[in-house]
Amino acid sequence: EPLPSEREEQRWGTSKHFSQIMDDLQAKLVLYTQRMNTYTGTDYSGIEALRRDIKASEAMVKDRLNDVRTAKESVDKAHIQQASSQKEVVGLLERKHSWSAGDLERYMSLIRSEHVNEQAIQTAKDGLAGAERGLEEVRTRLEKKERQQYHEEQIWSDTIRRNSTWVTIGLMGLNIALLLSNVAIIEPRRRRRLVREIKAALAEQTEIQLSNTATGAEEVSATVETTASDSVETPNAVSAPDIAGIEQVLDELP
Questions:
Q1: Measured in Å, how far apart are the chain's first and last C-alpha atoms?
Q2: Rounded to an integer, what distance in angstroms lies between the CA atom of residue 229 and that of residue 251?
Q3: What single-letter DSSP state applies at residue 238?
Q4: DSSP structural state of residue 236
Q5: Four-way CATH pick for 43-160: 1.10.1760, 1.10.287, 1.10.10, 2.50.20
Q6: How many CB atoms lie within 10 A of CB 191?
Q7: CA–CA separation, 221 and 43 (whole Å)
Q8: Burial of 173 (0-12, 13-18, 19+ CB in 10 A)
Q9: What is the pLDDT of residues 24-82, one digit of tens each?
């Protein structure tokens, strides 16, 4: 007798083999389905890839919007810095008659920083313009991909409807062919077979009736001969029961 562990190993091996067969079958089924979709033009993988690209482009648009927002904040900060420096310069000029050495040094520092502030503003503006150009490019690319997705989905839907129409027409043709074959081939054969069966049954019934008729005729002949012989031997011995028996036999004949 095999041990439980041996039976368990056999079951495990069978289950593992069956799982391997099912995995291979599923992989082949997916491959054949992909080939069929490619052949019929109903493959949706290209549109799925395009949709993933659109999602990536949408994420890029969000990033570019953040860059534009950051660039605008940089421009605003540069303007605020320039305005603050100019305000401080104006304040120093208003009390120019009471400057100290520190005020003079501060004024010279603000004058020197004016050029730096202008450069910072220009740099921030350039960064903002670059961020806006990048945003515009990404948006244009996104709009182009969205239009392409809409166009491809329309073509895919038209292909699905066209294939469905052809499948429906094929099924209708198959049904018509089956109906015509039933009318032209199956029904005549079934009718001929039914006629043969009916003829065979009638022939068998006729043979049975003929056999019964022959048997009844033999019985009548025998009865008549017996009656005749009895009449010869005893002319007056024919009685009513014998005649009744003959009539009964004749009535039983078909």
A1: 75
A2: 23
A3: -
A4: T
A5: 1.10.287
A6: 10
A7: 92
A8: exposed
A9: 888 888 777 777 777 776 777 788 888 999 999 999 999 999 999 999 998 899 888 88
Residue identified by tokens 């029961």 is 241
* Half-sphere exposure of residue 52: CA atoms within 13 angstroms, side-chain side: 6
Which band of pLDDT confidence, cut at 50, 70 and 90, is reported for residue 120? confident
Buried b (16+ CB within 10 A) or exposed e, 31-67: eeeeeeeeeeeebeeeeeebbeebeebeebbeebeeb
- Give residue limits of the domains in the chain: 43-160, 172-254
| Angle subtended at Cα 235 by Cα 230 and Cα 238, rounded to the nearest 5 degrees | 60
DSSP code at position 41: T
Give me the numbers of helices (H) and strands (E) for the chain, helices first please. 5, 0
Nearest residue to 134 (alpha-carbon basis) of 60, 74, 76: 60
Question: Residue 141 in contact with residue 53, Cβ under 8 Å?
Answer: no
Tokens of residue 239, six digits: 């009685």
Q: Residue 2: phi, psi to the nearest 5?
A: -70, 145
Distances (CA, A) of 236 to 96, 106, 159, 226, 239: 185, 179, 107, 15, 8
How far is residue 64's CA from residue 4's CA, in Å, rounded to a whole number?
A: 67
**Using CA atoms, how far apart are residues 132 and 252, in angstroms rounded to an integer?**
118
